[in-house]
Design brief:
- There is one protein chain.
- This protein has eleven helices and 32 strands.
- The chain is an alpha+beta fold and 623 residues long.
- The chain has three domains: 352 residues, Glycosidases (TIM Barrel), CATH 3.20.20; 138 residues, Galactose-binding domain-like (Jelly Rolls); 92 residues, Golgi alpha-mannosidase II (Immunoglobulin-like, Sandwich), CATH 2.60.40.
- Strands 1-18-17-16-13-2-21-20-19 form a nine-stranded mixed barrel, surrounded by five helices.
- A hairpin with an 8-residue loop joins strand 28 and strand 29.
- The longest helix is centred in the last third of the chain and has 28 residues.
- The radius of gyration is 26 Å and the shape is globular.
- The N terminus is likely disordered.
């Protein structure tokens, strides 16, 4: 199969106010006569509710399928749960403590359920349980159950946390909610001294019946249901824009659900593409992270939000109401994602799509004329018709094209040193091809239409362990973005996506930057600096002069066999203020960078460094 890459396109506007960009950058795509400072928007990130990016990633919630979405097993127990007890009856009932905030035309099923438990013995206990839950030591956790007694009579409920057969915490209580549709919340706080794997069980004692609407388990150090350590890493890698809720998930999201303050009361969301979009949660998102949470996240890390509307299912008035509710906090908006492709609901032709989304844009702009509006489409694969009948037609409200590309549809082969080196060369070549392709596409666009490169990655990074070649690919891509953004009229760049898809790896007990995350942290220091255009600077290097007068440089070596000697002019800055070298502990899957002191030196008017194989490095020079 010769074709190993693909691209998607949509259309995108950025206002100067929302990204602190110069007006002339928005007004023209002509290359400036002198280099412009590197813009922060090259370091945008997607946060989409797919795979383990949110559930098991950004979300601090430890329970799986905690609101019992989907179909149960043959006993009537919700998926991802197990039943226990000698004699018990289970029912996966269609009433729930959760709700959608408003009716929708969207066709989704099995989102709203509860788990009914009926004990059938006088002195026994029956219930549901979930194991393999990672609990961090030394951190207080809160287990919460939303429960109904089902009948207007007392039901005795037990909630329990165990590890290796030993009880960590337990609470027994009596509940009588008088009605099955009334719910009571019971909490249990506990702390374990060291990291452990636990089991949570919720049961009824004796011959009684209860309905469980939701089960929650959160550490005390969460921020609005999100992991504080992951948020810190998003800041460290320079996240300037958060594109949310997608991506594909934008076609599932109901923005008004985010107005429901208590996440326990938000109904889970079924994915249209189910296992592809939500393979790790069996086709459903728990709907725990909502609009206000993402806005708070953006404020905390200093990023600008970019929201994507659900154009296929919401009305133009719905979209206008969403803008109105945001009260000026969101200036960048997208009219759907990857529209025209089979995996997204909605029209599949440019005229149908344009006719559908134009009223959305018009109503949204009535609320706030300063908005940036994004249109979508299968560019460039949709052919020139999509450019002529959609991109150009929507240009008055959306003058920038969104471009998506995923490289290297190949199996990573580390089975020998020769094959490993070949893989590295292949991935390096794909990063070059990415920019050959976008240059070709750029030539097909009117010069006034800009490009938003708002999804980029190596394909299937979400189903592959981290390694080193990915970090070198990211370094080369960032190098190319910073070298070419003016020439290509690129107005935004967003990696897809940071959390658990190869920039930040998250486990129950810790999180860390992968080689891609390390590259982003290294290269983002160029933001605000003016590129140095000296022709002696190697292509594996990028150099900027910072506003404080220092000179900052980054380097990479894509070879797994040979060291690379790099020389850059100091520009009269002959003191090394800071430097760091990232050296891999191997070249295959699961290897990581180790931080080492810088290895460079000043030699006359040049800084010189010998980079070990597959290494990256930086230096800051001062006078």
């Amino acid at each position: 199969m010769k074709k190993r890459t693909f691209s998607y396109i949509g259309t995108f506007i950025i206002t100067a106010a929302s990204m602190c960009l110069p007006e002339e950058l928005l007004a023209s795509n002509e290359t400036a006569k002198s280099p412009q400072p590197i813009p922060a928007y090259i370091f945008g990130q997607n946060i989409e509710h797919t795979r383990s990016a949110v559930q098991g990633g950004l979300s601090a919630q430890l329970m799986r399928n905690r609101k019992f979405a989907g179909k149960p097993d043959r006993r009537g127990v919700a998926m991802m749960w197990d039943g226990y007890g000698d004699q018990a009856m289970y029912d996966h009932s269609s009433f729930s403590c959760a709700r959608h905030a408003a009716k929708s035309r969207m066709r989704r099923i099995n989102e709203r359920h509860c788990q009914v438990i009926c004990g059938l013995t006088d002195n026994g206990e029956a219930g549901i349980r979930q194991d393999k839950i990672g609990i961090r030591g030394g951190v207080s956790h809160t287990l919460k159950v939303v429960v109904s007694s089902y009948h207007p009579e007392d039901a005795q409920i037990v909630m329990r946390v165990t590890s290796a057969g030993n009880t960590i915490a337990e609470k027994t209580f009596t509940v009588n909610t008088k009605s099955r549709t009334e719910w009571k919340r019971i909490s249990l706080d506990f702390t374990v001294p060291a990291d452990t794997t636990a089991e949570v069980s919720i049961g009824v004692k004796g011959r009684s019946m209860a309905a469980i609407g939701a089960v929650s388990l959160l550490p005390a150090d969460h921020f609005r249901g999100m992991r504080a350590d992951v948020i810190d890493y998003l800041r460290e890698i320079g996240t300037s824009v958060v594109r949310w809720p997608g991506g594909n998930f934008a076609g599932e999201y109901r923005w008004r659900d985010g107005l429901i303050e208590d996440p326990d009361e938000r109904t889970p969301l079924q994915s249209y593409t189910e296992i592809e979009t939500q393979p790790h949660s069996l086709g459903y998102d728990s709907n725990d992270i909502g609009m206000e949470d993402i806005l708070a996240l953006c404020e905390r890390i200093g990023a600008q939000p970019c929201f994507t509307i659900n154009a296929a299912w919401e009305s133009p008035q719905d979209s206008a109401d969403w803008v109105k509710h945001c009260k000026g906090r969101v200036k960048m908006w997208s009219l759907g994602n990857e529209m025209g492709y089979g995996h997204m609901e909605g029209p599949k032709n440019p005229k149908g799509y344009t006719d559908m989304v134009r009223p959305h844009a018009e109503e949204m702009l009535k609320v706030d004329p300063s908005l940036t509006i994004i249109a979508s489409g299968p560019y460039p694969h949709g052919g020139q018709g999509w450019i002529n009948d959609s991109a150009k037609a929507l240009f008055p409200v959306a003058p920038i094209i969104s471009y998506h590309r995923y490289d290297s549809w190949i199996c990573f082969d580390f089975s020998s040193q020769e094959r490993t080196e070949k893989l590295y060369k292949t991935i390096s070549g794909h990063a070059d091809q990415a920019f050959d392709t976008i240059r070709s596409f750029r030539s097909r666009l009117p010069k006034e239409i800009g490009i938003s490169y708002d999804e980029w990655n190596i394909w299937y990074m979400w189903y592959r362990q981290e390694g080193i070649v990915e970090g070198l690919y990211a370094a080369k891509m960032l190098n190319n973005f910073m070298r070419n953004w003016e020439e290509l009229g690129i107005k935004l760049v967003c990696y897809f996506q940071a959390i658990n898809e190869q920039a930040i790896t998250v486990s129950p007990y810790e999180s860390h930057l992968t080689s891609i995350g390390e590259a982003m942290r290294l290269w983002k220091e160029h933001v605000g600096g003016v590129p140095v255009t000296d022709k002696t600077i190697p292509t594996e290097t990028f150099v900027t002069d910072a506003p404080d007068g220092t000179r900052y440089a980054t380097f990479y070596n894509f070879s797994t066999r040979e060291p690379l000697t790099i020389r850059i002019p100091t520009g009269g800055r002959n003191t090394i203020a800071a430097e760091k070298t990232l050296i891999p502990n191997g070249f295959v899957t699961s290897c990581r960078y180790k931080h080492h002191p810088g290895r460079g030196k000043i030699n006359g008017d040049f800084y010189e460094i010998v980079l070990p194989p597959a290494a990256q490095s930086n230096v800051r020079l001062k006078r």
